Amino acid sequence: xxxxxxxxxxxxxxxxxxxxxxxxxxxxxxxxxxxxxxxxxxxxxxxxxxxxxxxxxxxxxxxxxxxxxxxxxxxxxxxxxxxxxxxxxxxxxxxxxxxxxxxxxxxxxxxxxxxxxxxxxxxxxxxxxxxxxxxxxxxxxxxxxxxxxxxxxxxxxxxxxxxxxxxxxxxxxxxxxxxxxxxxxxxxxxxxxxxxxxxxxxxxxxxxxxxxxxxxxxxxxx
Length: 222
Fold this sequence. Notes:
Blueprint: H1 2-13, E1 19-23, E2 38-41, H2 47-57, E3 62-68, H3 69-73, H4 77-85, E4 91-96, H5 126-129, H6 135-142, E5 148-153, H7 157-172, E6 178-183, H8 187-190, H9 194-208, E7 212-215
Parallel strand pairs: 1-2, 1-3, 3-4, 4-6, 5-6
Antiparallel strand pairs: 5-7
Helix pairs in contact: 1-7
């Protein structure tokens, strides 16, 4: 659903021939089969520096880095933080599903307190493992003026697509770093049926990770 929102946003903006889509080797890897634009697969957690390099070499490129919560908040956190602080003119989209989905459902930086995973069978204990990472709040606190930061959810496709479009437009205008987190699903590792899956996404996740825009850069008057 998050990739559908991205594809529709790119189509509506008419930038198909300018896009470079970088995807992490995690759950997002198969995303490069869904689109008809230039793409590159990177090592786990290294999507952002690859895309930054492409953007610096070809500034006219619309550079997009797509990853999961592990690729962005764990092994790739250094790149995310530094790219935001440097105000790199790229767009980062991160899918947050509260676990490491590709490798069996282990605890991730975003796993909720009390949530059971393969490595927290009795529930995550914040006193032992720390609290979940709130990525957009972190980026909003450190990014310079010109950055766009938002959190959407696959439960609201229209809103999520709107945030992604704003992030891409922010890059197109050359204002600064753009970051959108998308609350996403993982029923296989959550071991939930359809009803419980959406209840977890729209209930527990949305309560801990509130949806909305955190940073909207001011547009310069003509």
